């Protein structure tokens, strides 16, 4: 039975190239280059070692918050809470 180490680069005929992220008793989890994670029964999987390097991950830019959007939401919550309290009284 083939045994791969965590971090090994592998190739699976259906899904392509990926990196081993976990090795359990009878299963191997692989994160493929398209960012999908799949779990394979190691004894049945057609996983082969690969020498192709992992693709470079690009950092995602965070969306900027505007000062007005946060203040508007909290003000709306306070107004709704005040109105509910006044209605109950």
Word description of this protein:
With 89 residues, this protein is α+β, with helices and mostly antiparallel strands. It has a domain at 1-52: SH3 type barrels. The protein contains one helix and five strands. It has a five-stranded antiparallel beta sheet with strand order 4-3-2-1-5, with no helix packed on it. The longest helix is centred in the last third of the chain and has 22 residues, at 67-88. The protein is elongated. The model has no long low-confidence stretch (mean pLDDT 81).
List keywords for this structure.
single chain; 89 residues; alpha+beta; SH3 type barrels; five-stranded antiparallel sheet; 1 helix; 25% helix; elongated
Write the layout of secondary structure elements.
Blueprint lengths: L8 E4 L3 E8 L3 E6 L4 E5 L6 E2 L17 H22 L1
Antiparallel strand pairs: 1-2, 1-5, 2-3, 3-4
């Amino acid at each position: 039975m083939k045994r791969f180490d965590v971090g090994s680069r592998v190739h699976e005929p259906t899904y392509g190239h990926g990196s081993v992220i976990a090795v359990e008793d009878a299963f191997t989890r692989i994160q493929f280059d398209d960012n999908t994670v799949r779990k394979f029964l190691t004894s049945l999987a057609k996983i082969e070692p690969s020498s192709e390097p992992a693709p470079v991950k690009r950092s995602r830019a965070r969306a900027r918050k505007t000062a007005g959007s946060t203040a508007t939401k909290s003000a709306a919550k306070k107004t709704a809470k005040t109105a509910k309290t006044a209605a109950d009284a």
